[in-house]
Amino acid sequence: MFRKRITWRNPLTRGVRRVVLAMGLVVVAGVATAGAASAGRLHEQTCVGQAGRYTICLYITDDPQSPYSHSYKIHVGIDVNMSRADAQNIIDGGGTITARMYGSDSFFDDNLIGVTRSWVSAWDGGLSAEFDRSVNGSVLDEDPEGEDEVFARVSLYVPVSGNTRTFRSDEVSASFWGGPLGG
User: Fold this and answer.
1) Burial of 47 (0-12, 13-18, 19+ CB in 10 A)
2) pLDDT digits over 32-45, tens only?
3) 124 in Cβ contact with 95 (< 8 Å)
4) What is the CATH number for 56?
5) Which H or E element spans position 144?
């Protein structure tokens, strides 16, 4: 049986190879930057993650319930990829998922405050949870001399393995001063 040999000189296969190579470079670039941290700003949602593993988002904005104070609403959301059955087993089996805010510093990260879990759910894509809390700006004011950099850390305790997985959001940078208005 005779088969036509595909060579590098064949213009059709050369075009296909270029497309496949370009797609591969895009995928590699996406995977390489998926976990890269960057700083977000106040009133902007910032998300980070690893493709096929997790996504964690942080959003901080003024608290509309306290328009004349230095109060902020913190919202943290996370999706952890796994089977629905594994996610439901974590929820039903005594697993815990918690979120805390930290101040980002050179030598150590300041543990600022816990963020209350609003809901947790198992679904076809895995385990998802959201956390919300309103705080005075002084709670997030971790650098008295200037702009503050804060981030969320979500911890997921898996009782079957006895392991805790932690996930870190991108930082949000702002001046979270909690003093009197007009000052």
Assistant:
1) middle
2) 334 444 568 888 99
3) no
4) 2.60.40.10
5) none
